[in-house]
Amino acid sequence: MAAVSLLLAALTACSSPTPSPTSDSTPREVTSTSSAPEQTTVAGLPASRPLWIDVPAIATHSSLVPLGLNDDRTVEVPPVEQPMQAGWYEHSPTPGQTGPSVVLGHVNGGGQDGIFARLHELKPGDEIRVGREDGQVARFVVDRTEQIPKKEFPADAVYGNTAEPELRLITCGGSFDDDADSYRDNIIAFATFAGVDQDRG
Amino acid sequence: MKLGRALAAGAVLWAVALPLTTGTALADETPSAPVATTPAEDPTAAPKPPAPGDAEPPEAVPAEDEKARDEKLEGASPQVRERPDGAPETGGGPVDSGTDLAVAGGAAGAAVVAAGGIVLALRRRRAGSH
């Protein structure tokens, strides 16, 4: 009988439930899977006037002049006789501040290419750097570049509130309307904040 | 003889106990399969986007969160203090090319030559009449 008991004990031991790490770990996996994705919001910088812009992908560099509104409430642009001059719309956030900062430049002027003549070549991932008066350089990465008819200018997408610091570079594009003496489209590059460098001057 | 009886009894007991223990073993193993699949079917997990779900970044904000965020942003004070009207006019017109200048110069030259020819023809006509 002792042998029988031993045999039974051995059989029972073989079939006893093994400690199951799977069942123990399952709740942890569920917990981690079910945790709602966190909304990562990039903290913005304090206001500081932008001094220059650098877009290496299209070999563009310019100082920035402040631009306001014309009498007809259209946005001011740099003098067309100085097509290589870019400007920052002074009623938009400064680059690096939370919100859409707007920089404008000519595609051409005075019979020459302008500062943003190659803006349409920008691709997602291209870097844009903006030097600020406080010595910080706000870095942005291009999300997308769009060519949009001026009659359908996307004011909300350009000027609407954003959760993070963003940047819009705007110029003209498309065919030229001789009657209206104006290009039919705008080229708009949308970029998001990627971090800060120190201006080594 | 005793050993034979003991072995026989042991064999009988083993035969009886085997199905019981096998059942227990099977019962122990059964839950492991659903446990392994439970996380994928977790109803509290974030909803999958309709398009290429697996390719979406893990940080993608659910549609409901995006909507709430957009509503919150729209309700906040405008970050662009003065919203301009219309579209920016950031082009002075097509760039002058060398071809255009050459065409204009050629046309001007042709006009000069034509005018000279007319003058000469008129003078010869006058000289012939005298």
TrEMBL record, chain B:
Is Transmembrane among the key words of this record?
yes
Q: Where does the record place Low complexity bias? A: 33-45
Q: Report the transmembrane regions from the record.
A: 101-122
- Secretion signal span: 1-27
Q: Which residues form the Gram-positive cocci surface proteins LPxTG domain?
A: 87-130
UniProt entry tagged with the keyword Ligase: no
PROSITE patterns membership:
GRAM_POS_ANCHORING (PS50847)
Q: Which UniProt keywords apply?
A: Cell wall, Membrane, Peptidoglycan-anchor, Secreted, Signal, Transmembrane, Transmembrane helix
Provide the coiled-coil residue spans: none
Where is the stretch described as Disordered?
26-102
Bias category Basic and acidic residues: which stretches? 64-86
Q: What is this protein called?
A: Gram-positive cocci surface proteins LPxTG domain-containing protein
Q: Which organism is it from?
A: Actinophytocola xinjiangensis
Source organism lineage? Bacteria, Bacillati, Actinomycetota, Actinomycetes, Pseudonocardiales
